[in-house]
Automatic annotation (TrEMBL):
SUPFAM superfamilies: NAD(P)-binding Rossmann-fold domains. Pfam families: NmrA. This is NmrA-like domain-containing protein. It comes from Riccia fluitans. The keyword NADP applies.
Length: 309
């Protein structure tokens, strides 16, 4: 059967955000491929995930970002490549570019971003070079490569920052006490993983997003930590006991906590204390997802919190 929609390869499909992209790609009708480092695994949740991919018609390919031949062979089968790799594999994404040139089939590359606009923030802590700095490096290599791209600036994941009201060691919003970072007024952007995946997949065949920055900032999801906590307090009819960690105290925590445990604090500092997610206006190279795709019924932060009532 001929497909009018691009064939999409996801590298990092078994990761936290990768699986949402696989599901969205299938749901939106794209022939979907995943590159797996191993086709067999003794890790039960991962095995279950891979089985669910297969059951939904996803093509499994064996390969590794660091194995050039496997990359070229995988890229030759598709039109679009989305990377959701993290950590040590992040810099090796530049190898995808060489492989894409050799494959000659790739119409869009979406690298592993899914967070801040890393060109529009100051890297305050040397330990953040590995995350923000590497993403910058990968961007520059992609821009030089001539391979069409989209950089997805998603803001914070709801599962990481809404479900716990941006607190540590809880998996649902606290009902008694909460820590507030800084004065709690800096505006962040918080989106569900499903919506981030949907907007990303909607963009892959969209010429308006080619060589652009896709910002996912629906108006109702631009919210400070103070507003997030107040929203939850209203829903549960309780005022939470608040411990305020000042900007200076949080800086000290980041400096004194060993890497990589300090990274989550540094991300909170950037998003919820400095307001790096919202501290700039969009310009001609930027497109906003909710405006571009008004048909997507995105989940608001408020609706997301309702699942915990
Ligand atoms: N905005 C936010 O709130 C937020 C939160 C978290 C993450 N993020 C961003 O989202 C992106 C993805 O992070 P994540 O947490 O979803 O990642 P993750 O869960 O650590 O998953 C990484 C994935 O990459 C795969 N991988 C690693 N090395 C590979 C290699 N050499 N070749 C092929 N595949 C390889 C892993 O495969 P295996 O299964 O084989 O290990 C896994 O599927 C990152 O850019 C991160 O910064 C944003």
């Amino acid at each position: 059967m001929a497909h009018s929609k691009s064939k999409v390869l996801i590298i990092g499909a078994t990761g936290y955000i990768g699986k949402y992209l696989v599901n969205a790609s299938v749901k939106l009708g794209h022939p979907t491929f995943v590159l797996l480092r191993s086709l067999t695994t003794s890790d039960p949740p991962k095995a279950e995930l891979v089985k669910s991919f297969q059951e939904s018609g996803v093509t499994l390919l064996k390969g590794d970002v660091n194995d050039y031949e496997s990359l070229v062979a995988a890229l030759r089968q598709v039109d679009v490549v989305i990377s959701t790799v993290s950590g040590p594999a992040a810099l090796s994404q530049v190898k995808i570019l060489d492989a894409a040139k050799e494959a000659g089939t790739i119409k869009r590359f979406i690298p592993s971003e899914f967070g801040h606009d890393v060109d529009r923030l100051e890297i305050d802590f040397k330990d953040m070079e590995g995350l923000f700095g590497t993403k910058r490096t990968v961007r520059r290599e992609i821009e030089k490569s001539g391979i069409p791209y989209t950089f997805v600036i998603s803001g914070g994941f709801a599962g990481y920052f809404v479900a716990n009201l941006a607190n540590d060691n809880v998996t649902s919003p606290p009902r008694d006490k909460v820590t507030i970072w800084g004065d709690g007024t800096a505006k962040a952007i918080l989106n569900t993983e499903e919506d981030i995946a949907t907007y990303t997949i909607k963009s892959v065949d969209d010429p308006r997003v080619e060589n652009k920055f896709l910002h996912i900032r629906p108006k109702e999801n631009i919210i400070s930590q103070g507003e997030l906590v107040a929203l939850w307090e209203k829903k549960i009819g309780t005022t939470l006991e608040k411990t305020v960690v000042s900007k200076e105290e949080l800086r000290k925590i980041i400096e004194e906590t060993p890497f990589p445990a300090n990274v989550i604090h540094a991300i909170r500092y950037s998003a919820f204390v400095k307001g790096d997610l919202t501290s700039f206006e969009l310009n001609a190279n930027d497109v906003e997802a909710a405006e571009l795709y008004p048909d997507v019924q995105y989940t608001t932060v408020s609706a997301y919190l309702d699942q915990f009532l």
